[in-house]
Structures are given as C-alpha cells and as structure tokens.
Design a protein that fits this description.
single chain, about 70 residues, alpha+beta, GMP Synthetase, Chain A, domain 3, 3-stranded mixed beta sheet, about 30% strand
Length: about 70
Amino acid sequence: MDAEQVKALIEAAMPGATVEMGGDGCHLEVKVVSDRFEGKSLIQRHRMVMDAVKDRIASNELHALSIKAVTPD
C-alpha cells in the first residue's frame, strides 16, 4: 500500500483534515491536522486516524503507521 492510498483513506474518513505523508513502503509516517482533534487526548486522536486504516493493517497491506495528530493551533 503506498502513501497516496493511505492519505486518501484518512482524508475520506476525516474531511477537512490536512494530511502529510512520509516514510517508505510499508512503514509510513503521517501528520494529520484537524480541528476534530480539539479537546481530544493523544490516544483519542490516534484512534481517530487508525480507524481510517485499521482494515488495511488487519490485512497486512500496511505494516506500520507513525502518527502525529494535531489541531490547527
């Protein structure tokens, strides 16, 4: 699974979010900026992002995803 596919999944699950991808192959890094994270804990933010890709991780299409989830502030 390439970075653009992961980016599209996250953008579809979190409309309005800014998604920046990095990393290589199956080990990707993502920075998601969304006002939906306002008032959420770090774990809640990560779960919101992981929910968008959990099926791909379960199927082993995506092996690792490093997440940075922040608000626009």
